């Protein structure tokens, strides 16, 4: 892995005599430790008034804009992308995910990582982040491990008009139902405030595209961690964000960019 941005004295160029994709041969091509990855992806420091909610998204996209292949993100990912995925989870208080992604990706509870135990304890966090599922219908299989055996109780974010029998089924399974909308759907801004009120200020969303599109449209996304995969898929796969287009595109600034084997690991924050 090597850092491409920001440029520092340690930013290394690839060895001109090496093969494409091999990375630098002066140490830049080595595998970064989890501590180094955690430092590279640290959440903003709390201000004098205490921590404010910070919502980051973690997504992967091919060169031609596909966020999935055959309905899943794993085929366009890499081992390092998954290490960063795990690191981002280890830094978060809660992982926010759409119900469709839970169904498609076979979501499981976040697991405790021994490598991050001391860091999480020092930050006042539990052993693993909670998973928060955004669902209007609560059309979920509550017999899955995500609900029956999480380290931290799974949250379900829904609207006030959600079917009460589904709410009761979720609570019977051990989930905590959080209301963040007056109707059937969820108001993204209210969802962020509701999670912050529960003490979850380091927020991470892993999509899917529909949920990310809603967060972007509501103006609540603070940061995008985007892995650009050096693959082409064609076809009709979704982009990383779906839904209606914004009237005016939102501008984000580049915070950092890492590279390994042709994969670009970028961070963008709101301008």
Question: Biggest sheet: strands side by side, in what order?
Answer: 1-9-10-8-2-7-3-4-5-6
Q: Estimate the helix proportion, in percent.
A: 10-25%
Number of strands: 10
Largest sheet: 10 strands, mixed
Quaternary structure state of the chains depicted: single chain
Range of strand content: 15-25%
* Structural class category: alpha/beta
Order of SSEs:
EHEHEHHEHEHEHEHEEE
Catalogue the unreliable spans. Answer: 15-27
Distance linking N and C termini = 27 Å
Q: What is the gist of this entry?
A:
The protein is 24% helix and 22% strand. With 271 residues, it is an alpha/beta fold.
Report on this structure:
Strand 4, helix 5 and strand 5 form a beta-alpha-beta unit. The protein has a 10-stranded mixed sheet with strand order 1-9-10-8-2-7-3-4-5-6, with helices on both faces. It is built from 8 helices and 10 strands. The longest helix has 13 residues. The chain is α/β, with parallel strands linked by helices. The protein is 24% helix and 22% strand. The chain is globular and about 60 Å long.
Features:
22% strand; alpha/beta; ten-stranded mixed sheet; 10 strands
Write the layout of secondary structure elements.
Blueprint: E1 2-5, H1 34-40, E2 54-62, H2 79-91, E3 94-98, H3 99-105, H4 117-122, E4 130-134, H5 145-148, E5 155-158, H6 164-172, E6 176-179, H7 188-197, E7 202-205, H8 209-218, E8 223-229, E9 252-260, E10 263-270
Parallel strand pairs: 2-7, 2-8, 3-4, 3-7, 4-5, 5-6
Antiparallel strand pairs: 1-9, 8-10, 9-10
């Amino acid at each position: 892995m090597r850092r491409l941005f920001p440029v520092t004295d340690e930013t290394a160029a690839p060895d001109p005599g090496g093969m494409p994709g091999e990375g630098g041969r002066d140490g830049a091509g080595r595998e970064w430790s989890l501590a180094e990855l955690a430092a590279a992806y640290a959440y903003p420091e709390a201000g004098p008034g205490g921590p404010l909610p910070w919502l980051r998204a973690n997504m992967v996209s091919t060169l031609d804009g596909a966020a999935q292949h055959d309905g899943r993100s794993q085929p366009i990912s890499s081992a390092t992308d998954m290490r960063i995925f795990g690191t981002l989870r280890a830094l978060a208080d809660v992982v926010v995910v759409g119900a469709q992604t839970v169904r498609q990706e076979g979501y499981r509870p976040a697991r405790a990582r021994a490598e991050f135990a001391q860091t999480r304890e020092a930050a006042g966090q539990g052993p693993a982040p909670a998973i928060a599922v955004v669902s209007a219908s609560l059309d979920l299989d509550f017999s899955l491990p995500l609900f029956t055996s999480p380290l931290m109780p799974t949250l379900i974010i829904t609207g006030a008009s959600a079917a009460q029998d589904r709410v009761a089924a979720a609570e019977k399974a051990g989930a905590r139902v959080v209301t963040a909308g007056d109707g059937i759907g969820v108001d993204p801004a209210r969802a962020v405030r509701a999670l912050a009120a529960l003490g979850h200020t380091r927020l991470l969303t892993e999509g899917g595209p529909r949920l990310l599109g809603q967060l972007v449209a509501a103006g609540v996304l603070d940061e995008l961690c985007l892995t650009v995969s050096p693959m082409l898929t064609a076809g009709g796969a979704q982009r990383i964000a779906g839904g209606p287009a914004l009237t005016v595109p939102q501008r984000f600034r580049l915070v950092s960019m890492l590279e390994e084997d042709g994969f670009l690991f970028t961070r963008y924050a709101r301008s």
